[in-house]
Amino acid sequence: MLLLATSINSIAADNFDATAEKIKSALNAEIRTESETDRDKNRKALQTLEFFGLREDMKIIELIPGSGWYTKILAPVVSDNGEYYAAIGTGRINSMTEQPGFEKIKIVAEDAKLYRKDGERFYSLEADSLGVKDLDMVLTFRNYHNFGEQGRRNMNKLAFEALKPGGVYAVVDHTARHMEAQTPANRRRIDPVLAIKEIQEAGFEFVDYTDLHYRADDELRYEVGVKSVSGNTDRWTIKFRKPN
Predict the structure, then answer these.
(1) Which of 34, 67, 131, 139 has a CA 20 to 30 Å removed from the CA of 164?
(2) At 40, which helix (H) or strand (E)?
(3) What tens digit of pLDDT does each residue of 159-192 get?
(4) Which superfamily does 2-241 belong to?
């Protein structure tokens, strides 16, 4: 039994070794700007993606990729043996598909509506499908806090429906104190307990969390763009799975 366990662990390690090399190569690519590489120490992409279980032959989607910080890492990693999709709020990465090595990026769910109603602090999300099925992994980084409850629940539903059984939902966001009311001072944060509750209610199983992005000196008092915490926020990093 010990020999079998050792063998399985060795295979898993070998599988990530190939992925790790591709992640390192992507991190060193010329397409990345100095402002992006300056964030590497803080964001710990290699360790984060290892925790989530990324492999270079996976079919993955990134939700709300923003300016493409993670896109420039994820897309090259799966380019040869997997597939990379992006959905919802993809406007700033559309031009990336014209860059050498990024031609295989697929933008989906282009009819999804991401918007903020007049007077509302949080975004709404309208979409019936991500337009792709049987994914191995859905990833979203520091986006969960941007939505009201309806938007969060819809995003979780879309992720669940797009994943194959056993597929991983990988979520990172800025930490808010448990059950603390939202205020202008602490906005752009979200309670991880609330997120776990909502994501489990969408049908997911909680798998694990990591303290990779725990920051003892973030008092959780201030909005994440405030100078005293910007770039050093405490973030929860949680892995979920669609049941088999």
Answers:
(1) 67
(2) helix 40-43
(3) 999 999 999 999 999 999 999 988 888 889 999 9
(4) Vaccinia Virus protein VP39 (3.40.50.150)
